[in-house]
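@channel sequence for tomorrow's demo:
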Amino acid sequence: MSSGAAKSAAAAAVPMAAMPATPNHHATVNASAGTATEPMAGANAHAEGGANADDSFVGHTPSATAPPMAATQVYPDGFPGFGPEVLPPEAVYHSREDAYKAINALAAAHGYAFITSRSFQTSGGLTTAMYSCDRSGRGRDPNRVMKRQRAASRRTDCHFSVYVKERRDGLWQVRHRTGAQFSVHNHAPSEDVFAHRVHRSLDADQKDSIDVLLQMDMKMKQIVTFLRLKYRKNVGARDVSNYIASARRAKLLAQPQHPEQTARAAKEQASLEQQTLEQEKEDLLLEEELREQLGKELQQTAGGSSAQDFFG
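structure tokens (generated this afternoon):
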């Protein structure tokens, strides 16, 4: 029996959920997939097209410690310390969704986010998905005359990206792309991870909670507070508002239109917008209070350094 076949037979004999973890940071437990991991041998010793490696590990949860954040701007030659060292490991997952959650968990810890760039099928009928930095693509031409004012684009034409490939055994594996340009960000890490829409998005469970709270006539402040406490996540009032508005629109479109319903929907939307603005204002005031308090503590412990020195 060849060494590759022996490895496959040994791996098949051990349920993936029971694979032992090691102290290595590439061997942790993936909370979303619920599976343990095993170190991968020769992770970088393959060509871009390889899809069925036996030396792999299932699941991965990155360190929650992010590097120091810097001012956001474009660095054509790559931002120092924001390159191959923040690539997700070439791990194996039970599903494409598990893989996507894992690579974005690592991305969040390092100040960036992955979005789906494209997906295609190989000649063998297996799916390959490419996930790119959410700052990929070119920004809008600043000299172009726009019909209406739009927010400035955050795109910097960043090429940082990875593949997630379907294997013949039904598992999905993260693969690094061949080429140095695909493992280097051309911008600094984000100062706030929630600047990335992907990291603020509401999952199905959170949306269900919102639906239940709305049936209980809960206000925006109560809904946001509940979600933050239950999910330990900095849920934004605007994201909750957008979901509620879209759910109401879908419900309205599914029913015959009557003037009374339309008027009531408009009134509810106006009330929702007002509650959202009030919650955002409250969040901003709280953030300013926290910054002021932290600044005072820094002055006391850092020999007179001001909050302005710390926050820039």
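heads up for whoever presents: Residues 14-191 form one domain.
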